[in-house]
Amino acid sequence: MKQKHIAKVIPNTDITVKEFKELIYDKFNAYPMMRMNYRKNQFEIVNAFYTSFYITQNKLSAFCKKLGISYELEYVGWSYSEAIIIKLS
Questions:
Q1: pTM for this structure?
Q2: Sign of CA dihedral 59, 45, 89, 23
Q3: What is the 3-state secondary structure (H, E, C) of 29-75?
Q4: Average pLDDT, integer, range 60-69
Q5: Which range of residues forms the domain containing residue 46?
Q6: Number of domains the chain is built from
């Protein structure tokens, strides 16, 4: 089941979830906290704070806009904060 979701294409783009994760790493040289919510069929990304730099919601939002990815900001219980939610079809 995991492989099936990794290969899903993000709506309105030709980018898969796996490729999106690689693009995030290339951009920030680190991974933010990410999780696939299988029940809601969505990909969730939360802030990450490292000792030398931060990956914030503003940076993640700008990155998604640059790629043309539509997203929502919602509170997620697993991280106790707001997350960028990418709905998958």
A1: 0.85
A2: positive
A3: CCCCEEEEECCCCEEEEECEECCCCEECHHHHHHHHHHHCCCCEEEE
A4: 95
A5: 2-87
A6: 1
